[in-house]
């Protein structure tokens, strides 16, 4: 974050337009972009691993049925299957785990801003850098302020908190709409937890988080939505129930509409009054108008 701040200072982005210290606000935003850009190759590997795990579900179920009651043999054959098919069940957690130290670091740094601490160089900052960050504001509200400070801080933290919660919900919903709800009760429960549980817990977090951290989280969510949209388009997942969408399957409403159009065309293009019916035995000659 300091490196980005130094860069924005060097190019002269030190104004306070709209009562905002854009050098520090953009430093937080570009910190997110930097971290996510570094982790992007791992994210792609995570998606590929997830697709491989989904493709292995039928074989895993067969192994579970075959070695029911023999946990040791089951685990051994499952690991051999993962190794043979180059699937890593732990890959799904890696990008999230690597982001946690950065998130916690930002949390502790921003939380200490404006607390009047004597040890301003605790995180390797100079006193001037610490004082500059402590004075940084977004629309007149300190980035170290929280919803509990009331006034303008409560309004701005509340608005960004709602955006943070909404984008968290939309990111989970984006995935579920693409894959569908799982048939397995445990997987369905996990989907509901991701969709409703985590956004609900963020209501408390939005009250306690400093403004700078809410900016960090919201930026992360927006990046995740764009990244997930690209990944779902490039690596489309199978449906949660393991069935593939049938491209020939017709929507019943559309089918009814087509039937109505066909009936209308039949009435319009049908034989006129007085026309003789076609005799199929005579080669299906056209009806003659009497």
From TrEMBL:
Keywords: Cell membrane, Chaperone, Membrane, Protein transport, Transmembrane, Transmembrane helix, Transport
Name recorded for this polypeptide: Membrane protein insertase YidC
Function text: Required for the insertion and/or proper folding and/or complex formation of integral membrane proteins into the membrane. Involved in integration of membrane proteins that insert both dependently and independently of the Sec translocase complex, as well as at least some lipoproteins. Aids folding of multispanning membrane proteins.
Entry similarity comment: Belongs to the OXA1/ALB3/YidC family. Type 1 subfamily.
Every Membrane insertase YidC/Oxa/ALB C-terminal domain range: 24-231
Keyword Phosphoprotein attributed: no
Ranges of biased composition (kind: Basic and acidic residues): 243-266
Domain of life: Bacteria
Any GO CC annotation of this UniProt entry: plasma membrane
Transmembrane segments: 24-44, 89-110, 152-172, 193-217
Lineage of producing organism: Bacteria, Bacillati, Actinomycetota, Actinomycetes, Micromonosporales
Organism (species): Allocatelliglobosispora scoriae
GO MF term (any one): membrane insertase activity
Membrane topology per record: Multi-pass membrane protein
Region (Disordered): 240-290
Localization (cell): Cell membrane; Membrane
A GO BP annotation: protein insertion into membrane
